[in-house]
Design goal:
The structure holds two protein chains of two kinds. By secondary structure, chain A is an all-alpha fold. In chain A, 76% of the residues lie in helices and 0% in strands. In chain A, 39% of the residues are buried. Chain B is 42% helix and 26% strand. Classes of the chains: A mainly alpha, B alpha/beta.
Chain lengths: 261, 248
């Protein structure tokens, strides 16, 4: 508990630094690109167009409002995979800073999560645009979108902390995670409905944490339903437990980072 | 209220050289099975204990590899000692091994804001001091050039400028004076004296014994990770020089 308090105090003191790091990440990402920040809007729109053309002919009868079905899943999934992949290298790529001066190291993976969150906001705007263009009805529950986002933020931060600390000691995690994300893309019902998956494989969804967050978000946006207590509890617990696991892993190993970077 | 601003008790630092060669899963597994993970222990510091009082200027002398930079990194909070405790009762602005927390891909301007934020300042506070920082470093022509294109002297000037403007309680200067030209060295000495005059503590590492004698009140002598002696700068410097001559 005392450690939590110290971490929180440090957090407040270093909020300026966190802001600087997030700004730096975004600047570097778009420094030499022509379209710049416009890419964050364009990327989900392009993805959606391509996937809709390819997949809607297969699932046309099954999924109403396919573009929105796809995008709701895709923007959450992209937020998670982008944040974790960026955070994975955050400690090793900031080796210069860490070796020279004291900085609370959890700021590095966390700043990557926050920059991806900024990208998510743009992607969400793209989602709204697509809803307008495809005449998808707006449900009032869409205003509660920040709730599943919050749960997912807990999960993603926890996973980012774990990945960033483990990569310091085992550099090949970087490549392994790339493959893992690819498999994860297929194990999540982004562009197919859950109904086409045979019963014996449905356990994949039970064990896929992202399934719960995406399902919650889709219920809000497409069905206009507020998920029940059980769904809220599941999402919250997944996020919270992974966050705790991340904090513990990171805290226990951070003093040894300096020897390996 | 203790007058000490840094307290070192039995500080020891161990580096595990064989473990550091392993950086992927396969290698780790192989070595784990063969039980080869814990050999080649290197103790860079052994049982260092001494205190630094507020307002003192401490010099650290010793041959290359004696553990000076490691000790500085421990005081700055960059490393945690393997054994022992270190207590620091103030803000630290470290300039260790020619660098100050710079991101080499960014420009000088961007690094001033980044480094300022690392030292705990808000954007507004840094904006106020911005001119003063660039004036001292004399880098007006290069303010928007990425630091990776700077010479080592330029990096040193910028680092020193930012670190000292921030009015730290403790300034750690590791070989910073060796890099600049004569003009810069004079400016540094002047700035350091100003800081000491304002009550801050300075920890200086230098291979130039004259500089150490001139600027420091107390000197610690490290040899192969051990503290040989800590005391008034005149005495310790004499003994250090004497032992160097004897070994010749």
């Amino acid at each position: 508990m005392n450690r939590m308090y110290v971490m929180l105090k440090g957090f407040i003191k270093y909020k300026n630094l966190l802001l600087e790091l997030v700004v730096r990440d975004i600047k570097i990402r778009y420094r030499k690109s022509v379209l710049g920040l416009f890419w964050t809007l364009l990327n989900p729109l392009l993805m959606m167009t391509v996937t809709t053309i390819v997949f809607s002919s297969l699932f046309r009868t099954n999924i109403p409002y396919f573009p929105v079905y796809f995008l709701t899943g895709s923007i959450l999934f992209t937020f998670n995979s982008e944040a974790t992949t960026q955070a994975l290298t955050s400690i090793i790529s900031n080796a210069d800073l860490i070796k020279k001066v004291y900085i609370p190291k959890y700021l590095f993976p966390f700043s990557r999560v926050l920059s991806s969150l900024v990208n998510f906001v743009f992607a969400f705007i793209a989602l709204l645009l697509v809803m307008v263009v495809t005449s998808t009805p707006f449900k009032p529950t869409i205003l509660l979108s920040f709730i599943p986002l919050f749960y997912l933020l807990l999960f993603t931060t926890g996973l980012s902390l774990i990945l960033s600390s483990v990569t310091v000691f085992f550099r090949d995690i970087h490549h392994l995670y790339g493959v893992f994300t690819l498999l994860w893309t297929y194990a999540t019902p982004l562009f197919y409905p859950t109904s086409i998956i045979p019963e014996k494989f449905k356990w994949i969804f039970v064990w896929n944490p992202l399934y719960y967050f995406i399902d919650y978000f889709r219920k809000l946006v497409l069905d206009g339903i507020i998920p029940n207590l059980s769904a809220n509890l599941t999402c919250f617990l997944i996020g919270f437990l992974v966050l705790i696991a991340g904090l513990v892993t990171f805290y226990k190993s951070q003093d040894r980072f300096i020897l390996y970077i | 209220m203790s007058q000490n601003i840094v307290e070192l008790k039995d500080v020891s630092m161990m580096f595990n050289l064989s473990r550091e060669k392993v950086d992927n899963l396969k290698e780790y597994f192989v070595r784990f099975v063969k039980k080869q993970l814990s050999f080649e222990e290197f103790w860079a510091l052994k049982n260092i204990s001494f205190n630094i009082e507020r307002g003192e200027s401490l010099g650290i002398v010793g041959l290359n590899g004696s553990g000076k930079s490691t000790l500085l990194k421990i005081i700055a909070g960059v490393m945690k000692p393997t054994k022992g405790t270190v207590s620091v009762y103030g803000t630290v602005a470290p300039l260790i091994e020619l660098g100050a927390g710079f991101d080499f891909e960014l420009t000088a301007r961007e690094n001033i804001f980044l480094n300022g934020a690392i030292l705990g300042f808000s954007r507004a506070q840094i904006k106020e001091k911005f001119e003063e920082i660039v004036d001292f470093a004399e880098l007006w022509d290069f303010i928007d050039v990425p630091i990776k294109n700077f010479s080592s002297g330029m990096v040193a000037r910028l680092g020193f400028s930012i670190a000292t403007i921030s009015r730290p309680d403790i300034l750690i200067a590791d070989e910073i004076l060796g890099v600049g030209d004569y003009k810069f060295q004079k400016k540094c000495e002047g700035r350091i004296n100003e800081i000491i005059g304002n009550g801050a503590t300075v920890i200086l590492v230098s291979h130039s014994i004259e500089t150490v004698k001139k600027m420091c009140t107390k000197v610690a002598w490290l040899k192969k990770g051990e503290l040989v002696k800590v005391g008034p700068s005149d005495t310790v410097c004499e003994e250090y020089m004497a032992s160097m001559e004897n070994e010749q």
